[in-house]
């Protein structure tokens, strides 16, 4: 009998995803390093995570293939953080256009995901990107690729090392109607990660509030640096590395 995995949907109901690990191949990622006002990252992080610096990394991802699903997209807002000796990033919001990733992300890895519709267009300079939800354009970026090799963020920005992992928080309550009482920290790593290439870029970020999609908590967000990565990775079940009563 196969070992149980952390899923909330019975096998007989035909879940939208199979058990982890999930294999992401032929991925193109645009990363925008953004600065935010002091105190913003603290408000974006749930307890017991602690912020590291005043940065938010906005990640646009085109997934060539994930376990047979072709050409899906997402855009995520990540905050550098720590919990005890663990250092990583917390995904505070993600829009995605594939139901497999939406369901698995929320149910298995407590990722705050929403459905979205995407534009990912090649331009003579680079890329034109947009995310819509219920017809409203929420996020836009225009990317110019310089062609110069990139790697780490520019040293003068003093960007913290976010490590190769996410730290997500699952809130637990004693019963369905009560307020959460326990916050579990789940560390999610990315085994078999391969970075095939990384190019320096320049990028813009335009955020527009929707009826249920406010971006006010980000404050005066500004793009500090950008890059274009090509990569592949696996996405496995995380491990609970600690919990706190809240």
Automatic annotation (TrEMBL):
<dbReference type="InterPro" id="IPR010451">
    <property type="entry name" value="Acetoacetate_decarboxylase"/>
</dbReference>
<dbReference type="GO" id="GO:0047602">
    <property type="term" value="F:acetoacetate decarboxylase activity"/>
</dbReference>
<dbReference type="InterPro" id="IPR023375">
    <property type="entry name" value="ADC_dom_sf"/>
</dbReference>
<dbReference type="Pfam" id="PF06314">
    <property type="entry name" value="ADC"/>
</dbReference>
<protein>
    <submittedName>
        <fullName>Acetoacetate decarboxylase</fullName>
        <ecNumber>4.1.1.4</ecNumber>
    </submittedName>
</protein>
<keyword id="KW-0456">Lyase</keyword>
């Amino acid at each position: 009998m196969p070992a149980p995995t952390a899923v909330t949907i019975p096998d007989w109901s035909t879940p939208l995803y199979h058990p982890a690990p999930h294999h992401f191949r032929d991925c193109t990622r645009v990363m925008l390093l953004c600065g935010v006002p002091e105190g913003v990252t603290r408000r974006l992080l749930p307890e017991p995570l602690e912020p590291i610096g005043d940065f938010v990394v906005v990640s646009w991802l085109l997934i060539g293939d994930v376990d047979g699903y072709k050409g899906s997209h997402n855009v995520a807002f990540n905050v550098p953080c720590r919990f005890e000796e663990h250092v990583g990033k917390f995904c505070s919001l993600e829009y995605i256009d594939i139901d497999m990733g939406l369901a698995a992300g929320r149910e298995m890895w407590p990722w705050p995901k929403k459905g979205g519709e995407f534009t990912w267009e090649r331009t003579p300079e680079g890329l034109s990107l947009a995310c819509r939800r219920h017809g409203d354009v929420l996020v836009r970026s225009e990317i110019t690729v310089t062609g110069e090799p990139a790697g780490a963020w520019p040293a003068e920005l003093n960007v913290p090392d976010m490590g190769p992992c996410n730290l997500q928080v699952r809130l637990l309550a004693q019963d369905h109607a009560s307020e959460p009482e326990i916050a579990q920290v789940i560390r999610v790593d990315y085994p078999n990660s391969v970075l095939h290439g990384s190019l320096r870029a320049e990028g813009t970020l335009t955020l527009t509030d929707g009826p249920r999609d406010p971006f006010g908590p980000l404050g005066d967000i500004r793009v500090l640096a950008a890059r274009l990565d090509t990569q592949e990775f696996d996405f496995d079940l995380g491990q609970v590395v600690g919990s706190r009563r809240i």
